[in-house]
Design brief:
Helices cover about 20% and strands about 20% of the residues. It is α+β, with helices and mostly antiparallel strands. It has a single domain, classed as q2cbj1_9rhob like domain (Jelly Rolls, Sandwich). The strands form 2 sheets. The chain has a 6-stranded antiparallel beta sheet, covered by helices on one side. Bound molecules: 2-oxoglutaric acid.
């Protein structure tokens, strides 16, 4: 495994890091096929939550490929660093925006800003971290994830963020963006005719209850 120190440093300083080429093209393809099957079987159910997106939850219970990609050692190392080695997978969900989706506002998934304590921050924060798997090419016009570098340790109001402060996460398929759960982020606007396929993991500290009951839902 590559030396992960650069990624750990970026997680501390910027609140995110990227793992390029984490997935092979076969894994990307397999994940898209599995997602489309799930989307088809659940259409008009989960996606109603956000019009012009295809969404699903508990993807790990449905597709072997999802169970493989959430356990890739470089990714696991980037979860263990901020969350400790006994972290747990809360959920693997997918959100794939289509043309015309209204862009989400910038937000923190973790709710309000939590300042670092005066003692060892790694012993308690962050509470969660998220890998975002890009299965399509994320181009500027395909609604890529946007975020504010460093906002995991800065008490900014997401509604006050200026365009210059936002970073657009453009990348090739197979890249994974790892975010500290305190990072201010959101999606962009997809103005293309293509769907932007992506899957997100949500990993948390051992004492937080997961969204899914993996032991009973995974075959
Ligand atoms: O799909 C994206 O790029 C971001 C999704 C997101 O921020 C969310 O669902 O909270």
């Amino acid at each position: 495994m590559e030396n992960m120190q650069r990624h750990f440093h970026e997680l501390d300083e910027l609140g995110y890091t990227t793992l390029e080429d984490l997935l092979t093209s076969n894994q990307v393809e397999e994940a898209i096929v599995a997602l489309e099957e799930v989307y088809e079987s659940e259409k008009n159910v989960v996606s109603l939550h956000e019009p012009k997106t295809k969404r699903t939850f508990n993807f790990t219970s449905r597709a072997e490929i999802s169970r493989q990609i959430i356990q890739i050692p470089r990714l696991v190392a980037c979860m263990e660093y901020p969350l400790e080695s006994d972290y747990i997978l809360s959920d693997m969900e997918a959100r794939s925006p289509m043309k015309g989706v209204s862009s989400q506002g910038l937000h923190r998934d973790g709710g309000t800003f939590i300042p670092n304590p005066s003692y060892n921050v790694h012993s308690i924060l962050p509470l969660a971290a998220q890998p975002m798997f890009a299965l399509s090419e994320f181009t500027a016009n395909k609604g890529p994830t946007r975020f504010v570098p460093g906002s995991h340790i800065s008490n900014i109001d997401p509604t006050d963020v200026t365009p210059e402060e936002k970073y657009l996460f453009t990348c090739q398929p197979g890249t994974v963006l790892i975010c500290d759960n305190r990072l201010v982020h959101g999606d962009g606007t997809n103005t293309t005719d293509e769907i932007r396929y992506s899957v997100q993991g949500f990993c948390c500290r051992k004492y937080i209850k997961p969204f899914c009951d993996h032991t009973r839902s995974i075959p």
